[in-house]
Amino acid sequence: MKDFLISYNQMDQEVAEWIANLLKGQGYEVAVKVGKYQAWEGLVEQIQTMLHGWEHFVLLLSDAYLEEEYAKLEWGVALCGIPDGVQSRIIPIRISSVRRKGLLTCGDCIDIYNMDRKRGEEKILKELRQDRANEARRFAYSNGFGYGVRERVCLNTHVFPKPLRRNVEDLLSQRMLNGDAAARELLYQHNLRLVINMMRRYRSYAREIEVDVLFRVGCQGLSKGLDTFGETEKKFSAYLSRCIEREILKMLPEKVQASLY
């Protein structure tokens, strides 16, 4: 796998290039990705494609970056893994004095915003060397699975975009029925919290199933729900929830399924 993929806001391009050159000078394979995507359509798939093959996903935290709508979705996709099961480790680097919120408070963060470049370089390289030298010491956004941070993070609905207002959802669902792929993608993204809610409901019955696998199965149910939704369905969210629930239930042991029906 390649070493470091750096995500940043275009206003922080100079800092991103500085950090990239620093890491390249240490022999690492590095790429920078300004937070721009071709369109809302297929955004989740675009992020998955971007992350594929990278061992570390570096986030340059600034006010401009955290205000972008895509930021939380990048974290969510990185945390929950990509379809082939490979997960990039997230390394947040705070380049301005922004207040960490939500998910970003539960892990280590490299703070360089109050340092000159020389001290900043020393801090970054020191943190990365320590992390690589001691495999037991991981940033909280690690590949480890179980009852630790990763599971709590993946089951946190705040990773994903907020639900749409009812009138907006109705408008987009009508456009989706008329073949608008961009409307479908927006509905997909803004209903990912339904997947998390259903995972929470059945998590106690599915402890042997890795959380990223359960997430992908729930997403499959969400996708099927969007594909099969019709005008006769009155409650959009309720219909999607049932579709997600059906897919998750299929993953549970037969004895558990029988006890739930």
Report what the structure shows:
- This protein is of the alpha/beta class and 261 residues long.
- The chain folds into 2 domains: 2-133, 3-Layer(aba) Sandwich (Rossmann fold); 163-260, Rna Polymerase Sigma Factor, Chain: A (Orthogonal Bundle).
- It is 52% helix and 11% strand.
- It contains 12 helices and 5 strands.
- The chain has a 5-stranded parallel β-sheet, with helices on both faces.
- Helix 7 (166-177) crosses helix 8 and helix 10 (211-228) crosses helix 11.
Keywords for this structure?
single chain; 261 residues; Rossmann fold; Rna Polymerase Sigma Factor, Chain: A; 2 domains; five-stranded parallel β-sheet; 52% helix
Number of helices: 12
The domain tally reads 2
Question: For this structure, what is the CATH class of the largest domain?
Answer: Alpha Beta
Q: Find the CATH superfamily of the largest domain.
A: Toll/interleukin-1 receptor homology (TIR) domain
- Biggest sheet statistics: 5 strands, parallel
Percent helix among the residues?
40-55%
Please identify, by name, the CATH architecture of the largest domain: 3-Layer(aba) Sandwich
Mean pLDDT across residues = 77
Number of strands: 5
Residue ranges: pLDDT <50 for 5 or more in a row?
Answer: 82-86, 133-150
Write the H/E string, N to C. EHEHEHHEEHHHHHHHH
> What proportion strand?
5-15%
> What class do helices, strands and sheet pairing give?
alpha/beta
Distance between the termini: 44 Å
Strand order of the largest sheet: 2-1-3-4-5
Outline: elongated
Radius of gyration: 20 Å
